[in-house]
Specification:
Helix content is 18%, strand content 32%. A hairpin with a 5-residue loop joins β3 and β4. It is globular and about 55 Å long.
Length: 257
């Protein structure tokens, strides 16, 4: 019932409070940015922010993957575009002039992709099958983040059995769950503060196997649905809801740095 992306590692930064106050009207663009094709033969890849909340790097990743980070969407929310946006990979280094919030960094990433790839998008909202993230009947078991703690670690864990996060709001946690589940998750918890959380579960490895092959041995432990309820006091409920889609109307390979 849920899916995992094994080829690429995404270290996703949780929404943060700003470490500095930008000047009024300061453009949301990186001070220095490089985007170039990856070396041939590369395997896997990574997209992640560096400590300091000022720099994003990517190695051997596609434009589609960069879009999932910049626009905070899952791959299934992206449509259209030429085949190379998914098949060809790129390296990127982008540094802001000063530390920024994660939302600001993501807006900078959007501006960078739109400039370097001549990316033009159309947004569509469709009613789709979703999971609704809700507080369970007994109440949530989340720990509210200390607002005086200025440490800014990202959400960690690739969906293969666990996640840990600090200073995370429920809307962003729903996005993280959307990446590993079979449909998007929308936040209907009604919880507005930021939280520290830890979740341990056993990934669902069910799927077709070669004829005659033995079923794989799975570690003992709760499913993600049970873990959410027992460990965090949250639950997932199947329903219908609005999901935003990005349709690529135009994209070009970057000409240079």
């Amino acid at each position: 019932m849920y899916l995992y992306a094994a080829a690429v590692s995404l270290v996703l930064a949780a929404p943060l409070l700003s470490q500095s106050t930008p000047k009024p009207g300061e453009p949301l663009v990186f001070e220095v940015a490089s985007v170039k094709p990856s070396a041939p033969g590369g395997r896997g890849g990574i997209v992640r922010p560096l400590p300091g909340n000022q720099t994003y790097i990517a190695n051997n990743v596609s434009l589609r993957l960069l879009m999932t980070v910049a626009y905070t969407v899952t791959d299934r929310q992206i449509a259209g575009g030429p085949p190379w946006v998914a098949d060809e990979t790129f390296d990127m280094t982008a540094k802001a002039a000063s530390p920024r919030t994660t939302d600001e960094l993501h807006r900078m990433l959007q501006n960078l992709l739109e400039e370097r790839f001549q990316l033009k998008l159309r947004r569509e909202t469709r009613e789709s099958s979703v999971w609704a993230l809700m507080v369970d009947k007994g109440g949530h078991k989340l720990t509210e983040h200390d607002p005086h703690d200025l440490d800014h670690p990202p959400i960690s864990g690739a969906g293969r059995g666990g996640v840990a996060g600090r200073n995370v709001n429920m809307n962003y946690f729903a996005f993280w769950l959307s990446r590993i589940l079979d449909r998007n998750v929308i936040d209907r918890t009604g919880l507005s503060p930021y939280y520290d959380l830890s979740l341990q579960f056993v990934p669902d490895r069910a799927g077709p196997r070669p004829e005659g092959a033995d079923a794989p041995l799975l570690p003992e432990g709760p499913s993600i649905f049970t873990a959410l309820r027992d460990q965090l006091g949250l639950r997932l409920e199947a329903t219908k809801g609005p999901v935003e889609y990005l349709v690529i109307e135009h994209a070009e390979r970057p000409a240079g740095n």
